[in-house]
Amino acid sequence: MTLSQFLVLSAGLFSIGVYGVLIRRNAVLILLSVEVMLAAVNINLVAFGQYLENTGRFAEGTAASGQVFALFVITVAAAEVGIGLAIVLLIFRNRSSVNVDELDALKW
Amino acid sequence: MVNGISLMLAESNVEGLARDFGDGGLLAEGAWLIVVVPFVATLAITLFGKRLPWKGAELAVGAVVFALVYGGALLLTSWFGDGIVHEGSVKIGEFGGFEVEWGWVVDGLSSMMFFVVGLVSTACFVYAVGYMKGEVRWTAFFASFTLFAGAMLMLVSAANLIQLLIGWELVGVSSYLLIGHYWEEKENSSAAIKAFIVNKIADVGLVIGIIIAAITVGTFSISEIIQRVVESDSELDDVAAIIALLLFVGAMGKSAQFPLHVWLPDAMAGPTPVSALMHAATMVTAGVYLVARMFPLFHEMAPGVLDLVLIIGTITLVIAGLLAIVQDDIKRVLAYSTLSQLGYMTAALGAGAYTAGLFHLFTHAFFKSLLFLGAGSVIHAVHSNNMSDMGGLRKYMPRTFWTFIIGSLALAGIAPLAGFFSKDEILASFNEANQPIVLLLGLVTAFITALYMARAVFLTFFGEYKGQGSPHESPAIMTVPMMVLAGFAVVAGLFNVPGQIGAFNEWVSTRFVETVGASEFLGEHATSFDVPVLLLGLLAGLAGIYLGYRLYYPDAATQKERDRLYVRGLWPVLENKYYIDDLYMEGVVNPIKGPIARFIDWTNSYIIDYVVNLVGMFTRVVGKVVYGVLDQRGIDLAINEVSAGAGFLGGKLRYIQTGKIQQYATWLFLGAVALVIGFWIKVT
Description:
The complex is a heterodimer.
Chain A: H1 3-23, H2 27-54, H3 65-95
Helix pairs in contact in A: 1-2, 2-3
Chain B: E1 2-4, H1 8-11, H2 25-29, H3 32-48, H4 57-80, E2 86-95, E3 98-106, H5 108-131, H6 138-157, H7 161-179, H8 186-217, H9 222-230, H10 234-254, H11 263-266, H12 272-280, H13 284-293, H14 295-301, H15 303-326, H16 330-350, H17 354-382, H18 393-396, H19 398-412, H20 418-432, H21 436-461, H22 476-491, H23 503-515, H24 518-522, H25 531-558, H26 571-575, H27 580-653, H28 661-683
Antiparallel strand pairs in B: 1-2, 2-3
Helix pairs in contact in B: 3-4, 3-6, 4-5, 4-6, 5-6, 5-12, 5-17, 5-22, 5-23, 6-7, 7-8, 8-10, 9-14, 10-13, 10-15, 12-17, 13-16, 13-17, 14-15, 15-16, 15-21, 16-17, 16-20, 16-21, 17-19, 17-20, 17-22, 19-21, 19-22, 20-21, 20-25, 21-25
């Protein structure tokens, strides 16, 4: 498998994520879309990490750093989703809605 | 940093009879304390004197007792040791090429002065504690009094001319404060101002003299200047006469020599202890001390000025002596007597008799302060300065009477009291200097001196009491200092008996023996009694007393008339003080007060004020223009416009802030896309 195949997959996933973030009204689904974008990034990281290792371009002692990065991103993403869902839950309790179009109190 | 430069002069190449002296060791190195202690005491009295049990007087007395003990110790060390010559200094700063130092000289001359100032100050201070009881401004009085003594000690200890000048001016300031102590009366504050101004006129001479000397020699140090004199430096020689003349002008002011003597009699306005100290040890001796300190300069390089010194001294001694005969105020009698005796000292220095002049300063300090304290005691008892209110006090005030008699006899030059030896030495030196006229005038004045003192004694202590109330003897705190001074008035002359005891001569000549060699100056110092002159002097004194007895003793008993010795033509002149005060008033003060002051006032209000007003008006107009045009219409407008623009833009731009999060995200992504496209273009 070539690098570009992964990059195309990653770009597709990212675009879907961006679309979701910009279009969906439901806050939960926006968070979901953000996760999709992060998954796309992870694919990129792993793909490039593997590619660089295959072509032997890593400096000494930095092997598998792409994969390690991906692991970190997954961890951070989990935490982010936890906080995001907690916020959404609280908003729902207060306003009985998670429609982001209605959440525009912070404006001029 | 303290660096002892003692023996500096001794080590330099001096030929002849120059000899080495001790450096005085620790005692001389610490001699700066003599100067510092009174100044610290002054400060302490000013700051918290009022809170002390004696309201500051104890600090004042303590300070001068310290000076007395230290000065006495130095004098004894110098006397019984090999003599002391020490110069210590602390560098204060450097201005241009001139180093300014605070130094202290310890040699025979300054030790002698430390002792005299210390002793007379102690007597006057203790006396003042009794005399000033219940008077106004007690603490302020003792603060100024201590400053007065401290300033004189500073002047005496000065190693350089700048320090001497500072001491000199401090003496002037504190004398101003003390003379004007009872300033509630206009007369007293006028006397203070007069003393200050006359001194200032003379000080101008002193300052210029010091500046010329310093520029020529390149240093303020007195010993350096003397050293140059010894080396016959030609550069100094060229200006030496001017320097000497200007220094002597300064000395004429402080030592109240004709024609700048007018302030001294008026200075009687101060409290009597002040007069005693001022006339004996401090202030008026400063001028004599200055001439003595710089004596080699006068003697070697400016003999013409020395002649002038002789002439001025002789004029002063005669005219002041005559004035003393006609005074009614007992303090004024003594004041003119001081002038006359200062004339003796000055004339002696002028005749080249260095030791004789200083010796008279030394003895005079004791008996004149004694006489003033006695006069103060009398004034204290009868509450009047006038001898026409006194009389018969012999019965009421025996201690004052006897001490006053001792002082008077010493002043009249009756053997074997102090004045006899010093006056005889001065007269002998006139004879030796081959000045028959001066000798004659000196003898005549010796007669006059005895006459006016006899008059003062007979009018004050004999006959019937003419004043108010009943007089009483002063308390012990006042009489004991008088007795101590009386003791010195008896024995002080024995310190310098020609051919027998040379102690005083040794003290005051140490420095010059060291630098110039003894022969140079001491050759003109009498080494044996000049018997004819001695007898004539004694005779003049006795004749004066006899005449005083004939004229005033019966008068004092009957109180018919006061001045029986009325000489037509001479007396009006004397009572108007030779019209010198009037001359100054009409010739100097009134023209300045009248036309000159009016002209200056006119100039001030019509020319200077006009210019000032014009400038002010111009400034106002400019200010108005600047305010109206530049400030209001220019700067304010710009500021308002800028802020209005900012507000307008903000009003428009705030609509971007919609609160819709997806809109923000859209902008964010569009921005990211734009960045990518930008990079793309740049890369390809």
